[in-house]
Amino acid sequence: MRSYALVSVILAIGCFEAxxxxxxxxxxxxxxxxEVPQLTVAETALVGTTLGSFCAPITGDARDCRxxxxxxxxxxxxxWSLSNDWAVGISGGVGWLGWDDNVPTKLWxxxxxxxxxxxxAAASRYWLDASAGAAALxxxxxxxxxxxxxxxxxxxxxxxxxxxxxxxxxxxxxxRHFGLAPEIRVQCFGFSLDDWLQHxxxxxxxxxxxxxxxxxxxxxxx
Length: 222
Known about the structure:
mainly beta, Porin, 12 strands
């Protein structure tokens, strides 16, 4: 009888310790799934197409105009969470337009953004993003000759414009501090046709549609 009581006490203590250990092990998993990172840094690879016309100089005084151009680029962004649903940040990027190998064109931009997160607070969830800033198209003109016989040396021309974008995407947490985020983005550029009168490249207002995939790093969980 005394042995039975001793065994019962040992089993009870063992069950209590196992239960406490199970709760301790489960707690980090539960809290981690609901954690929200305050700092987000992302490097994004972009591919897309423009929906407006681009014109560039060719032989003589003629211009070569195209209504569409493919684009590939990179964007670096950083955001700080203000709450479980809202974050603000800044991003900058560069894209290479691939419609003419003889006239290399780069698209630079910097934007301030606000992001709204959908669903339950966690690292992995959908989001909507709105941003605005400034953009510059940098085009390297080749040396070319006018019909008058005058030759123009190679030079670089830069066109500035306001820009804004809307995007939707989703963060997927792979590890606690790292993940991936696919997105689709529509960006508008307000280039002016007045530059054409100054013998600059003709950039009509542009709409850019891009797909992106980001490598995301998170930190400062709360």
